[in-house]
Design goal:
With 286 residues, the protein is mostly beta strands. The protein folds into 2 domains: 162 residues, Immunoglobulin-like, CATH 2.60.40.3500; 96 residues, Immunoglobulin-like (Sandwich), CATH 2.60.40. Helix content is 0%, strand content 50%. A hairpin with a 2-residue loop joins strand 2 and strand 3.
Length: 286
């Protein structure tokens, strides 16, 4: 697997949350909200404008363009409004000017992961930021991740039940994800400073594949399985990035492992050898 710059989750239909959801427009007066590090006064909720189109699970839509000048992710901005939140993905051309054409883009709501994922055009290979703590009521954090094919996607981690929709705006060209309360409870990924692991299905049955992304040293990712405190399996892989942004990985548990297990996914500290990453207590059915 190739590393950049250094030589270098799934749609489950639910009657409760699937399908389009109509959200009533806000009639709130102007309010002052905090958006990143600046204070913004808003008079309406653009994330509730239009004729609905909110989805609780599955594809949110796609846009296909023959040309694209977008090359770099330059901004991820969440603005809260009364009754909704809006995240805008800003992109720039190779020249540094704001992008005018975004190429082919798409988005999906992976409800079992608690994530809204935005896929960027293959021309977008660089990013000026890797992750941001959003602190919204619905959206908690956002990550820029390099996929297995070297393209980038943006994962919005939710903190509460929500429905979503996806659109583009122009002058300059940007991607928009609108979020509103609704649908069933979402499960959130397990996170550390180094690794993000997507929620595993419940119950677990062999074979078990663990999916996530990390920023471990030299992109090395370790999976250790313990039973009664003893290491019973150890697997290694390499993620797709670690210098510029988060790199995606997949790891598989040996199929013969069943029963109660403690899983560690991450890296060993170069300073003291301690394990740094995510720990999961799981039970794997035979």
């Amino acid at each position: 697997m190739r590393l950049r710059h250094l030589a270098l989750l799934i749609s489950i239909f639910s009657t409760a949350c699937g399908g389009a959801t109509t959200v009533a427009p806000s009639t709130a007066p102007a309010t002052t909200v905090q958006a990143g590090s600046s204070t913004t006064t808003v008079n309406s909720a653009p994330c509730l404008e239009g004729a609905g189109g909110f989805i609780g699970d599955g594809p949110l839509g796609s846009r296909a363009r023959d040309t694209a000048d977008a090359a770099t992710v330059t901004g991820l901005t969440l603005t809260p409004y009364e009754g909704c939140e809006q995240l805008i993905v800003e992109l720039a051309a190779a020249s540094g000017a704001p992008a005018t054409s975004l190429g082919t883009t798409s988005a999906e709501f992976i409800r079992r992961f608690g994530v809204v994922r935005v896929h960027l055009d293959p021309t977008v290979t660089d990013t000026g930021l890797s992750d941001i703590v959003l602190g919204g009521t619905l959206a908690e954090r956002v990550y820029v991740v390099r996929d297995f094919d070297d393209s980038l996607f943006v994962d919005i981690h939710l903190t509460d039940a929500a429905v979503a929709r996806f659109s583009e705006i122009s002058n300059p060209a940007r991607l928009v994800v609108d979020l509103a309360p609704g649908g069933s409870v979402v499960r959130t990924p397990e996170r550390s400073d180094f690794v993000v692991v997507m929620p595993l299905p419940d119950p677990l049955a062999a074979p078990v594949t663990i999916e996530g992304y990390g920023r471990t040293f030299e992109a090395n990712v370790i999976l250790r399985a313990r039973q009664a405190g003893e290491i019973v399996a150890e697997e290694f892989t390499t993620s797709t990035d670690y210098l510029e942004t988060w790199g995606r990985f997949e790891l598989a548990l040996p199929p013969q492992l069943t029963g109660d297990l403690e899983l560690f996914i991450g890296e060993d500290s170069a300073r003291d050898g301690s394990e740094q990453g995510v720990r999961l207590a799981v039970a794997v059915d035979e």
